[in-house]
Amino acid sequence: MHRDSYLPLPQARMGDAHCQVADASRAERVSADTPAIEVMTDLRRVAAATIRPDTPLIEANQAMILRGVRSLFVLDADGTLLGVITATDLFGEAPIRLANQRGGVAADLTVRDVMTPLDRVEAVSLDDVLKSEVGHVAATLKRSGRQHLLVVQRAPDGSTLIRGLFSASQVARQLGVAMPTGLIASTFAEIEAALAA
Predict the structure, then answer these.
(1) pLDDT per residue over 84-130, tens digit each?
(2) Region of residue 127 (phi > 0: left; psi between -120 and 50: alpha; otherwise: beta)
């Protein structure tokens, strides 16, 4: 259809209508047998949260807060994925231990120092995701012991494309589970209880 042939949509004044704003926390609930794709963050639709490897950890924390995320993709100047950094990486024991080994303080560390490098990042194939259910995702997250799971797809040129992301907190939210504060194990226990219900 030619651009000039599009007609505007009908509009109406709101008037006295009783309105509410949609609440993302009330997103459609899922269950163990819901297709896994329903809980995947699709990076074709949501911009990936990224950061450079030489960014100080304090700035990485601020970037997560501003974006409302708990993980960031670490990209070099050419946009090549180097690894992933999570809130657990920022606030776990690793920064303190590394700073002590170097004779400095954690504030001196950068993203590169504590990120999980790409060669240690595990991912699942989009083809497998399309054939799986939320229960499979929860089991995979639990087995890995991590809060996030990458989804990859083979690009037409043969390269690997990070297509999506599963987050334990997102899965829990869509299951209607109140997120416990603290340990990953607590999160998975809550998710398992919701899946068993």
Answers:
(1) 999 888 888 888 898 889 888 888 899 999 999 999 988 999 999 99
(2) alpha
- pTM for this structure? 0.75
Taking Cα atoms as reference points, which of 148, 94, 154 lies closest to residue 122? 148
**Top-level CATH class of 31-196?**
alpha beta
Domain spans in the chain, listed from the N-terminal domain onward? 31-196
Q: Give the H or E element holding residue 125.
A: strand 123-125
Is residue 51 within 8 A of residue 75, CB to CB? The reply is yes
- Return the closest-CA partner of residue 170 out of 73, 43, 30, 74: 30
**Using CA atoms, how far apart are residues 48 and 122, in angstroms rounded to an integer?**
18
Task: Find tokens 């259910």 and name the residue.
Answer: 133
